[in-house]
């Protein structure tokens, strides 16, 4: 009888484990910070495209064009070796064979390397007068580029914090710290890492396609094709209290 009484009391002696509710998710605010800066290039390449189609097999037009181009570079004090033939293509005019057709469509592309990009404004009109159909600036270089990238990134992050602080202060709250931070790249694709923090229409738009976000990012900046554009865009999630 005593053994039965102890067995009945044992279940009652087990400790009761309290059910602890999971902590409530933090209150957050998601903001986008952006910054940009343009650098003057110290070096650049200029691609010059010339097109011919009037019986070039039997004329000296291409030779005259190249002589005129070399003359412009000489007057500008540019060494001849700075100009190289980048590409050359030919096709039969009107779709006919270029071997049996007297008229051949010829395209020549030169690469001109400039160590003094400041002469571009004076140089371009003279290059056009030599018969260039298209001029394109490429390979812009500046030795301070990497350092400026770091500076612009810092300004973009500070811009995000400033926007968040202003909004939260007006709402009677206070920033606590950063919960998540993602750099927005123009060629970014895939799943949005901050999708859980986006609400309503913006969240649906982002989860459906990132092209809208890329368009928004691109519209912030107006490019200058003769300068190096450095930009940074961050989406930052701050905890608030």
Major sheet: arrangement of strands: 3-4-2-5
- Beta strands, count: 7
Secondary-structure-based class equals alpha+beta
Please indicate the percent range of residues in DSSP E strands (runs of 2 or more).
25-35%
Mean pLDDT: 79
Summed up, the helix count is 6
Organism: Hymenobacter glaciei
Keywords: Signal
Protein name: SIMPL domain-containing protein
Pfam families: SIMPL
Task: Give an overview in words.
- This protein is α+β, with helices and mostly antiparallel strands and 241 residues long.
- Helix content is 34%, strand content 31%.
- The chain contains six helices and seven strands.
- The strands form two sheets. A four-stranded antiparallel β-sheet has the order 3-4-2-5, with helices on one face. The chain has a three-stranded antiparallel β-sheet with strand order 1-7-6.
- The chain starts with a helix and ends with a strand.
- Mean pLDDT is 79; it is low at 4-10, 201-214 and 216-222.
- Residues 1-18 form the signal peptide.
Could you give the topology of this structure?
Layout: H1 2-13, E1 27-39, E2 43-52, H2 61-75, E3 83-92, E4 104-114, H3 120-129, E5 134-141, H4 145-170, E6 175-183, H5 200-208, H6 211-219, E7 228-240
Antiparallel strand pairs: 1-7, 2-4, 2-5, 3-4, 6-7
Sum up the structure in keywords.
single chain, 241 residues, alpha+beta, three-stranded antiparallel β-sheet, 6 helices, 7 strands, 34% helix
């Amino acid at each position: 009888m005593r053994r039965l009484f102890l067995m009945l009391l044992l279940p009652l002696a087990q400790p009761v484990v309290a059910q602890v509710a999971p902590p409530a998710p933090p209150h957050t605010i998601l903001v986008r910070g952006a910054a940009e800066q343009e650098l003057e290039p110290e070096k650049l390449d200029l691609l010059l495209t010339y097109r011919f189609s009037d019986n070039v097999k039997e004329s000296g037009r291409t030779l005259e064009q190249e002589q005129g181009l070399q003359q412009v570079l000489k007057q500008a004090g540019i060494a001849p070796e700075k100009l190289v033939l980048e590409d050359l293509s030919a096709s039969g005019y009107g779709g006919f064979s270029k071997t049996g057709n007297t008229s051949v469509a010829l395209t020549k592309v030169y690469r001109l390397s400039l160590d003094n990009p400041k002469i571009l404004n004076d140089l371009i009109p003279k290059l056009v007068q030599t018969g260039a159909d298209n001029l394109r600036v490429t390979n812009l270089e500046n030795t301070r580029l990497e350092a400026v990238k770091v500076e612009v990134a810092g300004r973009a992050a500070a811009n995000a914090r400033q926007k968040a602080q202003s909004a939260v202060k007006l709402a009677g709250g206070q920033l606590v710290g950063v919960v998540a931070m993602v750099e927005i790249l123009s060629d970014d694709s895939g799943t949005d890492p901050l999708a859980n923090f986006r609400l309503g229409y913006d969240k649906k738009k982002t989860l459906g396609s990132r092209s809208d976000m890329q368009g928004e990012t691109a519209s912030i900046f107006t490019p200058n094709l003769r300068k190096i554009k450095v930009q940074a865009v961050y989406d930052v999630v701050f905890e608030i209290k």
